[in-house]
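Final report, closing paragraph on structural work. Over the funding period we assembled a curated collection of sequence-structure pairs, and we close with a single example.
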Amino acid sequence: MTVTRHGPRGSNHPMPRALAELVAAAREGDREAFDEVVRVTHADTYTLAYRLVGNEEDARDVVQEAYLRAYRGLKSFRGEARFTTWLYRITANCASTHLGRRRRHQHDELPEDDGVVDEHPGSDPAEVAAAALLRDRVSAALAGLPPRLRAVVVLRDVYDLPHDAIASELGISVTAAKVRLHRARRRLREELFPLPGEADGEEASRAG
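Its predicted structure, as stored:
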């Protein structure tokens, strides 16, 4: 099965069925329904994959693998969680596996732009500039995190996955997931909003 990203549909196409109905039909073997599930969820799934692995080529590979696993595992989806949450967990697992393979062959690459901050600026040019600056600072700070910390903070703070789901999909304990999240948040806070003396201490440590 080859997963492709569909372009925008023409106005003569019907509105897509509710995602729950599409998933139910796909579980019964409706291939077209699963193709529509892919179309509806692809943008968010790709965004998550990109944030976790840091570049477009790897993100495409992760998305491909995630949908293959989702297709094969549809029968195991019982609806206890939202389908998108289930799909995000699969995507996170695929990203973790992909990063593990990549680390064995090369150094980790950093994403160019994670786009974590949602911009809702007004028409004031100063607001637009401030929002863009904050977005760039957050993206740079997130990119500077080690992949193991970046993965946890993205899954928790951007995609709102519970600690047990994050731990399960990354192959770590819940305690480790919480510790990594705490460290990631602290490093982001120190980078974005340093307290008095933190910046000086960092410069001193670099100089030493």
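The longest helix spans residues 31-53. The chain has nine helices and no strands. We thank the funder for supporting this effort.
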